[in-house]
Amino acid sequence: MATILVVDDDTVTTALIAGALSRAGHLVVTHDSGFGLTMSIHRHRPDIVILDVNMPGLNGTHALRAARSVERRQGADAKVILFSGLPQDDLARLATEAGAHTYLKKPSSMQSIIDAVKSCLVEAPAAKE
């Protein structure tokens, strides 16, 4: 079971994602804006953050900083999934710049979100000797 922080200002989207991930066996906490996000990350110590990149108090450069703060606070095992309605190329560029594990374009199916979370949880293969 992973702790997943879902950060999105759209309460319907947040509730749908939280419900799907909870049913998949994860502990899900939510946050509805960029304001106080760093404190929320510190408080909940999530394994994965699903981060909308366009919402009050968080967009573009601020999203990059938030995504990077996850790793600084949680260590290299913490993963970020960027989630946005941005154009595909912009979202891909932002995900690369942020060092995100992956990204999902809004809207995405619940199965796509669950699959992205599973991908984050897969352990790196053992080093070959």
How would you concisely characterize the structure shown here?
The chain is α/β, with parallel strands linked by helices. It is about 45% helix and about 20% strand.
Summarize the structure in words.
The chain has 129 residues and is of the alpha/beta class. The protein has a single domain, classed as Rossmann fold, CATH 3.40.50. The protein contains 5 helices and 7 strands. A 5-stranded parallel beta sheet has the order 2-1-3-6-7, with helices on both faces. It has a two-stranded antiparallel sheet with strand order 4-5. Strand 4 (54-55) and strand 5 (58-59) form a beta hairpin.
List the helices and strands and how they pair.
Blueprint: E1 3-7, H1 11-23, E2 27-31, H2 37-44, E3 48-52, E4 54-55, E5 58-59, H3 61-74, E6 79-84, H4 88-98, E7 102-105, H5 110-121
Parallel strand pairs: 1-2, 1-3, 3-6, 6-7
Antiparallel strand pairs: 4-5
